[in-house]
Amino acid sequence: DAFALATRLRAGGHATIAWVGNPEPLVAEAIARSAFDAVTLDMQHGLADTASVMRGITAVAGAGKPSIVRVPVGDFAMASRALDFGASGVIAPMINTVADARAFADFMKYPPLGRRSWGPTRAMTLAGVDDAQHYLKSANAGTLALAMIETREALDNLEAILDVEGIDGVFIGPSDLSLTLSGGAFVDQHHPIIDEPVRRVVAAASARGKIAAIFGGAPERARAMRDLGFRLVSLGIDPAYTTLGCDTMLKAMG
Ligand code: 3PY
Ligand code: MG
């Protein structure tokens, strides 16, 4: 059910997640039928819009998997909607200050943790709950608010952001982090400039019992991030899944 991902991660488990920018729910569903633990629908840089996220979450649930939605920068109203549609978690980009983190948590959590408005349209069904009180009691712990750390300002405020009640974890955006830390000189997910911040994020999150997550990219990198202590790691993006799948089959045919 939709709460299983949060339960597993809070218990110290790991998850490897797909990253999907294609707005067609059938693409998300096909990816969900692989061994990925969850599918991220990307509204920030991906092509997903409100309708495709709404349908995509249902399609992914049909394949028995949870969905995570990355909302556009500052679009916390969309974060609430994603939860109402049945998302198991939301990734919010460019969370740089405690105020950003507090605003995000407010839209993600019901009182007393936050100020999420009532109306779990599809969420109750996808959480396997048919009683409003039950959903209310389980939703704050059953859904994940993941704040993206991708600037120097965010790193300066890292501990304070992690200490915001209702923020369940932090999610590193290595491309933006390299871009901002280098002052715009380059963008490189693997650049050593982010090595120390990456280790600092794992340590700060685990010290607080919160979830450290990162955009993992290529398989070797994603594995290294998991080995470093990240509990939630993304692997690749959807155009690569398709192209690599084609090439694997063509190669196998010979
Ligand atoms: C980043 O690396 O900046 C991201 O947001 C991951 O897509
Ligand atoms: Mg980014």
Q: How many extended strands? A: 8
List the strand order in the largest sheet.
1-2-3-4-5-6-7-8
Shape: globular
Structurally, the number of domains stands at: 1
Q: What is the CA-CA span between the terminal residues?
A: 41 Å
| Average residue-wise pLDDT | 97
Low-confidence stretches: none
Structure class: alpha/beta
Q: Kindly report the oligomeric state of this protein.
A: single chain
CATH topology: TIM Barrel
Query: CATH class, anyone?
Result: Alpha Beta
Main β-sheet: number of strands, strand sense, barrel status?
8 strands, parallel, barrel
Quick summary:
With about 250 residues, the protein is α/β, with parallel strands linked by helices.
Based on the model shown, name its key terms.
single chain, 254 residues, alpha/beta, TIM Barrel, 13 helices, binds 3-hydroxypyruvic acid, binds magnesium ion
Structure description:
It is a single chain. With 254 residues, the chain is an alpha/beta fold. The protein has one domain: Phosphoenolpyruvate-binding domains (TIM Barrel, Alpha-Beta Barrel), CATH 3.20.20. The chain is 48% helix and 14% strand. It is built from 13 helices and 8 strands. The chain has helices at residues 4-10, 25-32, 50-62, 76-85, 98-108, 123-126, 132-142, 152-156, 158-162, 174-181, 195-207, 219-228, 238-253, and strands at 15-20, 38-42, 67-70, 89-92, 144-149, 169-172, 211-214, 232-234. An 8-stranded parallel barrel has the order 1-2-3-4-5-6-7-8, surrounded by 8 helices. 48% of the residues are buried. The model has no long low-confidence stretch (mean pLDDT 97). The structure holds 3-hydroxypyruvic acid and magnesium ion. Magnesium ion (MG) is lined by residues 93, 150, 173, 175-176.
